[in-house]
UniProtKB/TrEMBL annotation:
The chain crosses the membrane at residues 43-63. Residues 38-91 form the Polysaccharide chain length determinant N-terminal domain. This is Polysaccharide chain length determinant N-terminal domain-containing protein. Keywords: Cell membrane, Membrane, Transmembrane, Transmembrane helix. It is a multi-pass membrane protein. It comes from the Bacteria. Belongs to the CpsC/CapA family.
Length: 246
């Protein structure tokens, strides 16, 4: 008797449970890939800005040379009839604060300034004053704590000597209130702060980009809807008569 021919399965049909599992896995992977592609098109620019902000803050914190700061204080005392911290002393404190970082004032210092590039000394000394107190705050910055303290103390010493030399003309006395101590830790970079600033910048840019993309997508959808409406709904005047067959 002739043997019955074996029934052949279509080449594209899955072969048993293993084949069905493989097909299901492929469909799942394809769906996940489509969703990932859609999310990338929608949020890719925003995510890129966010990552750029985080990496920028991290890079600044890791690769920026450390900077140390130290602060000295100088007090201006009114030598008039009122004495103490009168309006004249406050006014002169503000004026001395503007003069403190100038090279002409720093020449009066007996404390040696750290070596820096020519004309760069003023970048390492910052002076600030208060509108109510005759106090001058002198902040020095440098690559080491010793340099930062040296800048601040040299500026304070120079201001005291400069004020003393003009005491007869101004009627106020300039006195050293406190010297700067060399700090043990740098002021910057600060990893948590730098990361926070970078992340905030990235979030801001991401939000702006998402708003712009969303606005463009909304306008595109409205234009497409209007175009479809104009193309598929004919006006009564342009509608052609329909012939009815016999």
């Amino acid at each position: 008797m002739p043997k019955p021919e074996a029934t052949q399965k279509p080449s594209g049909a899955p072969a048993g449970p293993l084949g069905r599992t493989a097909a299901l896995t492929r469909r799942t992977v394809r769906r996940a890939a489509r969703r990932a592609a859609a999310l990338t098109r929608r949020y890719g620019l925003a995510v890129a800005f966010l990552l750029a902000g985080v990496l920028g803050g991290l890079g600044y914190s890791l690769f920026t040379p450390p900077t140390y700061t130290a602060t000295a204080f100088v007090l201006v005392v009114d030598q008039g009839q009122n004495g103490g911290a009168g309006p004249q002393a406050v006014s002169f404190a503000q004026a001395y604060g503007r003069l403190a970082p100038l090279p002409e004032t720093l020449r009066h210092s007996s404390i040696r300034l750290p070596k820096v590039a020519s004309g760069a000394t003023r970048e390492h000394i910052q002076a600030s004053t208060s509108p109510d107190t005759p106090l001058v705050r002198l902040t020095g910055s440098g690559r080491s704590g010793a340099d930062a303290a040296a800048f601040a103390n040299a500026a304070a010493d120079a201001l005291v000597r400069y004020g003393t030399s003009h005491r007869a003309d101004t009627g106020v006395r300039v006195a050293l209130m406190s010297l700067a101590a060399a700090p043990g830790t740098p002021t910057s970079p600060n990893l948590p702060l730098d990361l926070a600033v970078g992340t905030s910048s990235g979030v801001l840019l991401a939000g702006l980009s998402a708003a712009i993309v969303s606005g463009r997508r909304g306008r595109g959808a409205r234009d497409a809807s209007r175009a479809r409406a104009a193309g598929t709904v004919p006006s009564p005047a342009s509608a052609e008569p329909v012939e009815v067959g016999s």
